């Protein structure tokens, strides 16, 4: 069998010394190289033949690297483009990524990084890493691969799918915005699955759920003896996601001090574990998500502008379910199939037209996750092949089609009879779904505390012996929104 021919690359730079340096570095990696000193020269060569990748300086005598990128984009060419920008010109890097560059490098180019970036553009992974027995496990999901698809035919969800398809191919950081439960993590996974990193790890981290004093160790890892209890070396999320994608959920909850450290790692592309003396390179694609308006957080001084700028190169907004109610039927069918399969129920129950109509009159403050919970319960209640409106358990008085979304949306979420808070009183009939029952108890307690403290989360948290971070996390989990007190 003949080995695959070596990849051919085009290097575009007007400085002969730098061109030679890049050429030598790449030749040593076994690639074949052509070079060009100007935009015109580059386009001429690109018209004559195709390449696996194009590496171009931003500043060229007769134009800019962006001209080469735009030409590639317009001609529908498959070449991956890597742009080299001047040191400190973040604008250029962002512009290049938006114009479709696979990745960028800043001058002076670190040759080790140069090799890594070119390798990852060509789908080559760095040398296999020894598995780390104590690496933090990625958040596991019981969702099967087929169920991980973003279901829906509404204009809004098609637009999201088209963007996912497009950005999957580059390294550009993506910020996914949307209310809780809209499917942000699903979007992040889809981006990962559409790109060259699909075979690598997808590590999901809920930034709001990690105690502040552990953030650095969790993100960057630590060395044995770095602090009390550090009995062995341990990798952090960045090392665990090396070669793959790191999904930073609820990025808006990251404290300012940690934001600075994260920015540094993103810029330098290397991490230093707590207690280590040296940094090691990491090759990670960052996808972050938030339900907050991050631009407003920046304006309020709670989020670093430079980090926002770095993470927000490409933005995907996942619309709330109430803005795409036409997808209810498809999404419900997909969710029911998954729930029935997990519960071993066959055939999969279906919604009657009346049930679907009832659902479409509900605002779903908790979005798809709330729909999923509701269908879970409905399936248990219905017990047959059809799920009717009555099985949904949505009280009639919730339906007011003209109402605007309440600031306290979750108050309108169906809550089972609130448990008695004084003392411990067990329900007469034991719950059939303990996890859901306990969620409802927790929701009722949180709402009562929030009401008592006029929705001031700090005060409500204190009254329950929780920190602000803890109550925020619990509220997000239970889809309780109560403004930004
Ligand atoms: N379009 C969709 N089709 C099918 N299932 C979906 C869709 N969107 C979301 N889901 C399901 O809804 C649930 C919630 O989605 P996901 O966890 O991605 O939301 P999220 O926005 O990340 O939530 P949070 O903000 O609370 O972290 C998951 O079980 C997911 O599989």
From TrEMBL:
The keyword ATP-binding applies. InterPro entries: AAA+_ATPase (IPR003593), AAA_lid_NorR (IPR058031), CheY-like_superfamily (IPR011006), Homeodomain-like_sf (IPR009057), HTH_Fis (IPR002197), P-loop_NTPase (IPR027417), Sig_transdc_resp-reg_receiver (IPR001789), Sigma_54_int (IPR002078). Residues 8-122 form the Response regulatory domain. SUPFAM superfamilies: CheY-like (SSF52172), Homeodomain-like (SSF46689), P-loop containing nucleoside triphosphate hydrolases (SSF52540). Residues 150-380 form the Sigma-54 factor interaction domain. Keywords: ATP-binding, DNA-binding, Nucleotide-binding, Phosphoprotein, Transcription, Transcription regulation. The modification 4-aspartylphosphate is found at residue 57. It comes from the Bacteria. SMART domains: AAA, REC. Pfam families: AAA_lid_14 (PF25601), HTH_8 (PF02954), Response_reg (PF00072), Sigma54_activat (PF00158). Gene3D superfamilies: 1.10.8.60, 3.40.50.2300, Homeodomain-like, P-loop containing nucleotide triphosphate hydrolases. This is Sigma-54 dependent transcriptional regulator. It comes from Pelomonas caseinilytica.
């Amino acid at each position: 069998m003949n080995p695959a021919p070596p990849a051919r690359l085009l290097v575009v730079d007007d400085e002969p010394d730098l061109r030679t340096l890049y050429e030598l570095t790449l030749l040593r990696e076994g690639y074949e190289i052509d070079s060009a000193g100007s935009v015109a020269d580059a386009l001429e060569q690109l018209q004559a033949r195709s390449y696996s990748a194009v590496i171009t300086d931003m500043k060229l005598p007769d134009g800019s690297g962006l001209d080469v990128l735009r030409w590639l984009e317009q001609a529908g060419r498959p070449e991956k483009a890597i742009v080299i920008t001047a040191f400190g010109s973040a604008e250029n890097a962002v512009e290049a990524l938006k114009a479709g560059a696979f990745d960028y490098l800043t001058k002076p180019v670190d040759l080790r990084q140069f090799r890594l970036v070119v390798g990852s553009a060509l789908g080559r992974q760095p040398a296999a890493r020894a598995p780390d027995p104590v690496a933090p496990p990625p958040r596991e999901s019981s969702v099967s691969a087929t169920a991980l698809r973003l279901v829906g035919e509404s204009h809004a969800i098609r637009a999201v799918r088209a963007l996912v398809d497009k950005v999957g191919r580059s390294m550009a950081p993506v910020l996914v915005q949307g209310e809780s439960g809209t499917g942000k993590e699903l979007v992040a996974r889809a981006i990962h699955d559409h790109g060259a990193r699909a075979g690598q790890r997808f590590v999901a981290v809920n930034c709001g759920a990690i105690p502040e004093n552990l953030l650095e160790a969790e993100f960057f890892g630590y060395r044995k003896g770095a602090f009390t209890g550090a009995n062995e070396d341990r990798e952090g999320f960045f090392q665990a996601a090396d070669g793959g994608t790191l999904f930073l959920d609820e990025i808006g909850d990251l404290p300012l001090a940690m934001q600075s450290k994260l920015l540094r790692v993103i810029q330098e592309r290397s991490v230093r574990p707590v207690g280590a003396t040296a940094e090691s390179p990491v090759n990670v694609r960052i996808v972050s998500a938030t339900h907050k308006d991050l631009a407003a957080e920046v304006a309020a001084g709670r989020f670093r502008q430079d980090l926002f700028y770095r993470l927000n190169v490409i933005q995907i907004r996942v619309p709330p379910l109430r803005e795409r109610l036409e997808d209810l039927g498809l999404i419900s069918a997909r969710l029911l199939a998954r729930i029935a399969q997990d519960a071993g129920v066959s055939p999969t129950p279906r919604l009657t037209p009346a049930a679907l109509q009832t659902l479409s009159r509900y605002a779903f403050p908790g979005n798809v996750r709330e729909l999923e919970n509701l269908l879970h319960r409905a399936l248990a209640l219905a017990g047959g092949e059809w799920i009717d409106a009555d099985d949904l358990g949505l009280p009639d008085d919730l339906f007011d089609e003209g109402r605007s979304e309440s600031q306290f949306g979750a108050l309108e979420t169906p809550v089972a009879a609130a448990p008695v808070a004084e003392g411990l009183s067990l329900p007469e009939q034991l719950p059939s779904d303990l996890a859901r029952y306990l969620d409802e108890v927790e929701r009722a307690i949180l709402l009562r505390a929030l009401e008592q403290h006029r929705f001031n989360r700090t005060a409500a948290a204190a009254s329950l012996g929780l920190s602000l971070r803890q109550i925020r996390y619990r509220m997000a989990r239970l889809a309780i929104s109560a403004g930004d007190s």
